Automatic annotation (TrEMBL):
<dbReference type="InterPro" id="IPR001544">
    <property type="entry name" value="Aminotrans_IV"/>
</dbReference>
<dbReference type="Pfam" id="PF01063">
    <property type="entry name" value="Aminotran_4"/>
</dbReference>
<keyword id="KW-0032">Aminotransferase</keyword>
<comment type="pathway">
    <text>Amino-acid biosynthesis; L-isoleucine biosynthesis; L-isoleucine from 2-oxobutanoate: step 4/4.</text>
</comment>
<dbReference type="InterPro" id="IPR005786">
    <property type="entry name" value="B_amino_transII"/>
</dbReference>
<keyword id="KW-0808">Transferase</keyword>
<comment type="similarity">
    <text>Belongs to the class-IV pyridoxal-phosphate-dependent aminotransferase family.</text>
</comment>
<dbReference type="InterPro" id="IPR018300">
    <property type="entry name" value="Aminotrans_IV_CS"/>
</dbReference>
<keyword id="KW-0028">Amino-acid biosynthesis</keyword>
<dbReference type="GO" id="GO:0004084">
    <property type="term" value="F:branched-chain-amino-acid transaminase activity"/>
</dbReference>
<comment type="pathway">
    <text>Amino-acid biosynthesis; L-leucine biosynthesis; L-leucine from 3-methyl-2-oxobutanoate: step 4/4.</text>
</comment>
<dbReference type="InterPro" id="IPR043132">
    <property type="entry name" value="BCAT-like_C"/>
</dbReference>
<protein>
    <recommendedName>
        <fullName>Branched-chain-amino-acid aminotransferase</fullName>
        <ecNumber>2.6.1.42</ecNumber>
    </recommendedName>
</protein>
<keyword id="KW-0100">Branched-chain amino acid biosynthesis</keyword>
<keyword id="KW-0663">Pyridoxal phosphate</keyword>
<dbReference type="InterPro" id="IPR043131">
    <property type="entry name" value="BCAT-like_N"/>
</dbReference>
<dbReference type="InterPro" id="IPR033939">
    <property type="entry name" value="BCAT_family"/>
</dbReference>
Length: 355
């Protein structure tokens, strides 16, 4: 017993579930949600599981005007023997607290948040899809709720967890994407909020994404906000390049999100004795490597896609990576990581958490 008391107010009705073999990302939500409140002076209180429902806020609530909010994203997987697994969920709760600290928001008890999540998953267990490649996407988030138009940290907050069954990111195996290097807009700057998972960063990224989509690119590769020279991330994923046998990823510099998939990839590469290095890497260096035929693979990493191979980069001209095909390392990383996550292979790091 951990002493946590979570009030249960379960739904009398159950929704009709969508077909698990044809799920769209983030469109369907389960029967319940976890919620707790924060009041300055009192701390977090009233953790509870309630039917999934709209929330009511005052129109002057600070979240609507100044965007004081943070979120997380992780997944639960169903194994062949019907167990439910989480992947390094404590990392998400830690990062949620780091994001909150940057936005002057209160810290949560990470143990309580994880316990609340497990309780919620138990209640909505039937919603963890069992079709190959599917999972239950978990979205914990905190919003500022005080009714006050002054620009200052809110005195009240809500922490909420919602769940959404999601399909395989790639219907027919992993497919390389076309990426445009963004030379006008930036996602984040050092000293800003780029290393926090907070709404404003995503609102700021939409324009570049829209422009790139119109030219037939699926994501943009972000460069640093100061010199427009060094690589930061791809879309809302971290990015890796394999050049001449060595794997390189931009170092965490304050404007890059510290991805849990990124960290897992680095640890896997180290386990396999494949050279991996975190350092500044410029777009010129990638361009040169490509021209010299040394750019072997490139891929994005994040919870949603796990690994997203890059088949083409546009910077000054079209740079094709690995003939536009998925590289062998990208494929091996994808298969290993998803295998660890869904319980089909051994987990040498103890990353899985049983619900
Ligand atoms: C969430 C996110 C990532 C990936 O993080 P994971 O923990 O691997 O899911 C990378 N970049 C940005 C901007 C993100 O929001």
């Amino acid at each position: 017993m951990n002493g946590y008391q979570i009030e249960m107010n379960l739904s009398h009705e159950r929704k009709q579930k969508p077909a698990f073999d044809n799920l769209q990302f983030g469109r369907n939500f389960t029967d319940h949600m976890f919620i707790m409140d924060y009041t300055e002076g009192k701390g977090w209180h009233d953790p509870r599981i309630v039917p999934y429902q709209p929330i009511t806020l005052d129109p002057s609530a600070t979240i609507f005007h100044y965007g004081q909010t943070v979120f997380e994203g992780l997944k639960a997987y169903q194994t062949k023997d019907e167990q439910i697994l989480l992947f390094r969920p404590n990392k998400n709760m830690e990062r949620l607290n780091r994001s909150s600290a940057r936005l002057c928001m209160p810290q949560i008890d990470e143990e309580l948040a994880l316990y609340g999540l497990k309780q919620l998953l138990n209640v909505d267990r039937d919603w963890v899809p069992n079709v190959e490649g599917t999972s239950l996407y978990i979205r914990p988030f905190i919003i500022s709720t005080e009714a006050h138009l002054g620009v200052s940290p809110s005195l009240t907050y809500q922490f909420i967890i919602i769940l959404s069954p999601v399909g395989a990111y790639y219907k027919e195996g992993i497919n390389p994407v076309k990426i445009a290097v963004e030379t006008e807009f930036v996602r984040a700057v050092r000293g800003g909020t780029g290393n926090a998972k907070t709404a404003g960063n995503y609102a700021a990224s939409l324009k570049a994404q829209e422009v790139a989509s119109k030219s037939g690119y699926s994501q943009v590769l972000w460069l640093d906000g100061k010199e427009n020279k060094y690589i930061e991330e791809v879309g809302s994923m971290n990015v890796f390049f394999k050049i001449n046998g060595e794997v390189i990823t931009p170092e965490l510099n304050g404007s890059i999100l510290d991805g849990i998939t990124r960290d897992s990839i680095i640890q896997l590469l180290k386990l396999w004795n494949i050279p991996v290095i975190e350092r500044k890497i410029s777009i010129e260096e990638i361009y040169q490597a490509s021209k010299e035929g040394k750019l072997e693979e490139a891929f994005g990493t994040g919870t949603a896609a796990v690994i997203s191979p890059i088949g083409e980069l546009f910077w000054q001209e079209k740079l094709v990576v690995n003939n536009g095909e998925t590289g062998s390392l990208s494929k091996k990383l994808y298969e290993t990581l998803t295998g660890i996550q869904n319980g089909s292979i051994v987990d040498p790091f103890g990353w899985r958490v049983l619900v």
